[in-house]
Design goal:
The chain folds into two domains: 375 residues, Butyryl-CoA Dehydrogenase, subunit A, domain 3; 167 residues, Butyryl-CoA Dehydrogenase, subunit A, domain 2 (Beta Barrel). The strands form three sheets. Strands 1, 2, 3, 5, 6 and 9 form a six-stranded mixed sheet that branches. The longest helix is centred in the middle third of the chain and has 36 residues. Helix 2 crosses helix 20 and helix 10 crosses helix 17. It has 666 residues and is α+β, with helices and mostly antiparallel strands.
């Protein structure tokens, strides 16, 4: 195939598509204007040749990767700054940026400045007093300082109350003394902390006159603004190489009685006066607002990363031909195998499901944030519970389906030039950062148990949990999407009822509440997962139904098919639960399997069109397997030739080691 031509199989696939790809792209972006704006940003950024690596990142040393990432991060920021639209509202900005993946064209493993924008600035906005915000926000937005957010410690992560770092107030000096009493108290993991940031929001246990006042946020300078040397009493370093995120510059931070002024505690919610009087915030959970914000963002990121992986896999599957279905016919595209469709089409549907759920969750987050500013805390628990379980489900599903996309590409998916291993490394990290997934499911379970008790008391439940009050029985199986959604709700309710009964049984046997909870925790996490599944399928269905009325019939049809595919897939995956809690029969299962297989067949002609509609540029895909032109084999060879080992016909190790060894001289 000549360079510049498009693989004939991909051309044929695109001709089969029966919906308007551009229309679906506009829908995903939130409108034609958003698509135009996103593409304009991509054109501008990618026109800066210095942002593109001449030598692939994987051939650089660990140190070189970081230094190259810093170089690109600064240039990337400057380019983005020229493209900022200050007229946009916050809601419009979120919509415009929800599918902005341009940074992944520059950084395969993300930028060392990521936490400055994702956590440092949002924490200032959400946790600083008006006076503090006026000073620190200006400096942070102008990049006069570079910050990060340090909460997790070497010995403690999701259990915030267990953090060991202390901030002891000295009223005589009007200072806080930051201290790490042990190696396990060292902050561990913050991006940019090792060598990039010079300021850090640190979560520490506030001690006043020997009494703990809970975990509070502190603004701490960790490096000199001129020399960048660590300040006295500050111990800094990098935590080392990881499965992914190796350009993020994750670091550790320890304190040796390091002193900061009193006004460096962020005091929007809780305050410490000069004499040491502590005034608690209205709700201690407000301190963790940044975590909730990031969990909302994670759901959207998982949808985008999954879209990238499945785009690569579907395009490759349209080009790759393997084996023979019929002896007299040529090798078919592997996309014609139903097993391949089963692997990949659910990944397309899942990306859409979490994309819609992310926008729904963002709208709820914005609503609750506005209410919090007015002193109303009623809806905060539901937001927290939803952010926990949706972060879990999106990260788990994305990791499973990204890896499935990689495996569906056979051996070539193992190549770093496919960009599938790196994508998996980035995605799977989300299962542990911003709250380890099992712990988050248990937090959701606590909310559900509380809701169960409220339901028994006849109280009104939060909207996402109102199905728990539904006492109607399912007398016969309804295999429609709405029927399956209701069945998922019955499963969630049934599993919650069983886990609560189990928890109470252990208590009656004499176990403490804590021990009973621990013993019932496997059932409790299963109930929380089922609740999350019920939420996602319902939100996906309702969001598609309410946001597609102006779309053409073919686009609405393909989106409805994705909703049905997603719903049937999870019904078939959770047959045991459905058989236990609903009147599902063997005949009903057979009917669902037939419908699922028929849907795969219906989606097959539109599969390449569906991934094309994600509109992910080749530079963002960064993949020899997934480029728009389908020149898979040429690109694999081109990437192979970039290896430094191919720069010379004979490597020096031959003369140094191999030749003497083969001549028996070693």
């Amino acid at each position: 195939m000549t360079k510049g031509s498009v693989n004939k199989d991909l051309t044929s696939e695109r001709a089969k598509c029966d919906f308007n790809v551009e229309e679906l792209t506009n829908y995903l972006d939130g409108g034609k204007e958003s698509t135009t704006r996103r593409r304009r940003i991509e054109d501008k950024v990618l026109s800066v040749k210095e942002l593109r690596d001449v030598i692939p990142e994987e051939y650089l040393s660990h140190k070189e990767k970081y230094e190259n990432a810093i170089r690109k991060a600064i240039l990337f920021y400057k380019v983005q700054k020229t493209l900022e639209d200050t007229k946009l509202s916050e809601q419009e900005r979120i919509r415009y940026n929800s599918r902005n993946m341009i940074s992944t064209a520059v950084f395969k493993d993300n930028t060392p400045l990521a936490l400055h924008f994702i956590m440092f600035i949002p924490t200032i906005i959400g946790q600083a007093s008006d006076e503090q915000r006026e000073y620190w926000l200006k400096r942070a937005k102008n990049m006069e300082i570079i910050g990060t957010y340090a909460q997790t410690e070497l010995g403690h992560g999701t259990f915030i109350r267990g953090l060991e770092t202390t901030a002891t107030y000295d009223s005589a000096a009007e200072e806080f003394i930051l201290h790490s009493p042990s190696v396990t108290a060292y902050k561990w993991w913050p991006g940019g902390l090792a060598h990039t940031a010079n300021y850090c929001v640190v979560m520490a246990n506030l001690l006043i006159k020997g009494k703990s006042c809970g975990i509070q946020p502190f603004m701490i300078q960790i490096r000199d603004e001129e020399t960048h040397m660590p300040l006295s009493g500050i111990k800094l370093g990098e935590i080392g190489a990881k499965l992914g995120y190796n350009t993020v510059n994750n670091g550790f931070l320890g304190f040796d009685n390091h002193r900061i002024p009193r006004d460096r505690m962020l005091m929007k919610n809780a305050q410490v006066s000069k004499d040491g009087t502590f005034t608690a915030g209205a709700n201690s959970k407000l301190t963790y607002g940044t975590m909730v914000y990031v969990r909302v963002i994670i759901v959207n990121n998982m949808a985008n990363l999954l879209a990238r992986a499945v785009t690569i896999a579907v395009r490759y599957s349209a080009v790759r031909r393997q084996s023979k279905l019929k002896p007299e016919e040529p090798e078919p595209q592997i996309l014609d195998y139903v097993t391949q469709q089963h692997k990949l089409f659910i990944a397309i549907a899942t990306s859409h499901a979490y994309s819609r759920t992310a926008m729904w969750l963002w709208n709820l987050y914005s609503k609750v944030t506005t209410e919090l500013n007015d002193g109303k805390l009623d809806n905060l628990p539901e937001l927290h519970s939803l952010a926990c379980c949706l972060k879990v489900l999106s990260s788990v599903d994305a990791a499973v389906f990204v890896e499935r996309s990689r495996l569906s590409c056979g051996g070539h998916g193992y190549m770093l030039s496919s960009n599938l291993p790196q994508t998996y490394g980035v995605v799977t990290a989300a299962s542990t950062y911003e709250g380890e997934n099992t712990v988050l499911l248990l937090q959701t379970a606590r909310s559900l148990v509380k809701a169960w008790q409220q339901m028994l008391g006849g109280k009104q439940l939060a909207p996402s949990m109102q199905y728990l009050s539904d006492k109607r029985q399912i007398d016969r199986w309804d295999g429609s999407v709405d029927g399956i959604i209701r069945a998922f709700q019955k499963v969630a309710k049934g599993k919650l009822a069983s886990s609560v009964a189990c928890f109470e049984k252990y208590q009656k046997k004499g176990l403490s509440s804590e021990d009973a909870w621990n013993k019932a925790s496997v059932q409790l996490t299963a109930a929380a997962e089922s609740h999350g599944r019920a939420v996602v399928v319902e939100v996906f269905k309702s969001e598609i139904a309410s946001t597609t009325t102006s779309l053409s019939p073919p686009v609405r049809k393909i989106l409805d098919q994705l909703v049905e595919l997603f719903t049937l897939y999870w019904a078939l995956e959770r047959l045991g639960d459905l058989l236990l809690y609903t009147p599902l029969s063997e005949t009903d299962v057979g009917d669902m399997r037939t419908r699922y297989e028929d849907l795969l067949e219906k989606i097959r002609p539109n599969s390449v069109g569906l991934v094309d509609a994600f509109d992910i540029r080749d530079e963002i895909l960064n993949s020899a397997l997934g480029a728009y032109d389908g020149r898979v084999y040429d690109r694999l060879m081109e990437e192979a030739m970039k290896s430094p080992l191919n720069a010379e016909p004979v490597n020096s190790s031959f003369h140094k080691y191999l030749k003497p060894f083969m001549q028996g001289k070693l």
